[in-house]
Amino acid sequence: MIQFLVNQELRSEHALDPNMTVLQYLREHLGKPGTKEGCASGDCGACTVVVGELTQDEQGNDSLRYRSLNSCLTFVSSLHGKQLISVEGLKHQGQLHSVQQAMADCHGSQCGFCTPGFVMSLFALQKNSSGPDLHQAQEALAGNLCRCTGYRPILDAAEQSCRQPCRDQFDAQQAHTISRLKAITPTQTGELNSGDKRCLVPLTVADLADLYSSHPEARLLAGGTDLALEVTQFHKTLPVMIYVGHVAELKRIEKTPSHLEIGAATPLTDCYGALHEEYPDFGDLLHRFASLQIRNQGTLGGNIGNASPIGDSPPLLIALDAQIVLRQGERQRTMALEDYFIDYRITARQDSEFIEKIIVPRATSDWAFRAYKVSKRLDDDISAVCAAFNLSIENGAVSGVRIAFGGMAAIPKRARACEAALRGKPWNQAAIERACQALAEDFTPLSDFRASKEYRLLTAQNLLRKYFIEQQTPHIETRVTAYV
Fold it and tell me: Yes or no: is domain 368-472 CATH 1.10.150.20?
């Protein structure tokens, strides 16, 4: 059985199809049609809901954290022990919530189909902001699409919502909600079971390892932003899933003097602070990783584990010489991330083995790391080419070099011929040009709807030239750039 709150109603579910998304649950099971389906792939934001979770503030007191999610990509099992807030829960005692009123006051709605999703993103923005901030508003709304308004009135509504936040029913009931969530905090492995399909919800990494060994056919569910597409887009059935979002060991970020250890189930939103502090370009790229809704539930381990050749984080992690720790039962093994990827969607992971954590070396002053993402849109888009450069220059020559690309091969891959052309050579334009030519030995990219093979190769070469120019003139701030 799993338990959670829907607005303020306690729900207990056991015999429920684990393949059911939160969107379907709201509309078809609870009769709450305010949440809309636009794309069923996490691109439009019409299905946005907000999930409240127990956390602790800086003083160690219990508090609530509100985050926007795409309900079309979220399976119901992930709600265990949380509060789901839908648009129906905002209006209170006949009065619109302040974010709803702001949308009306600022004429932020025309056809209205996308409006509930925008309202929920504004609600999460209001709960997480200390005042109006245009950049923060743009980030919060980047995952919501509107065909009518041109966005200006919606941004006006965001400004009004955050400038004049009103105490609402969620603030008034916060202590009560915290008490109720603490009462349903999972204490043992939960399960959804519809007879022919099941989802298990372990609480410890040891339990996860045991369950996965017993059910090697199971699909691991973390954020689900990729896995859910198999259900919503390809109409597949997932007979057995294991949800890892309650395994605390997989959601820790620990710093040592030499490296960061990031649990594989850590949401990308939570990874931002630690990675940005060490590598600003990594943090900047995370801001362009899909949308805020996706980053709130998608995980670093999931982005690695799905082995996409256009995943944004693997090229950066490879250039940083990151490692991953794999676990199977009680056995652990550590490998360089670059060795994890074998061929298209094929990895070194064995049956019943899962990524436990990612180990990222901490930044040092003698290495210069930069990352660049090239996509058709600045926000909420997939890379055509993603490049990461990590070089050490001593006495005018290249003493160390790691260069990796995504979108250039069937896997995220190092540019070893390019590296060899630079290693030990003078750090000058001539060496860069030789290294650019060597990229043609490293990669024979494909043409697809995102870019042609010629465009990809030329872009990769130009990004290396760009890196060189920026190292010569470090005051230039043109990193993590999008090209159209």
Answer: no
Q: Is 321 left (phi over 0), alpha (psi -120 to 50) or beta?
A: left
pLDDT tens, residue by residue, 222-252: 999 999 999 999 999 999 999 999 999 999 9
Please tell me the CATH code under which domain 190-243 is placed: 3.30.43.10
User: Exposed, middle or buried, 290 (CB in 10 Å: 0-12/13-18/19+)?
Assistant: buried
DSSP H or E run through 118: helix 115-128
Cβ atoms 195, 15 nearer than 8 A:
yes
Rounded-to-integer distance, Cα 2 and Cα 470, Å: 52
According to CATH, the superfamily of the domain at 2-11+20-183 is: Beta-grasp domain (3.10.20.30)
The topology (CATH level 3) of 252-361 is 3.30.465
pLDDT tens, residue by residue, 293-318: 999 999 999 999 999 999 999 999 99
Distance (Å) of CA 446 to CA 42, 373, 399: 26, 18, 32
Which long-range contacts (C-beta less than 8 Å, at least 24 apart) are formed by 417-426? 417/441, 417/442, 418/442, 418/464, 422/391, 422/398, 423/398, 423/399, 424/397, 424/398, 424/399, 425/397, 425/398, 426/396, 426/397, 426/398
Cα atoms in the Cβ-side hemisphere of radius 13 Å centred on 240: 8
Is 0.90 topped by the overall pTM? yes
Q: Is the dihedral of CA 149, 150, 153, 156 positive or negative?
A: positive
pLDDT at 484 over 60: no
Amino acid residing at 225: T
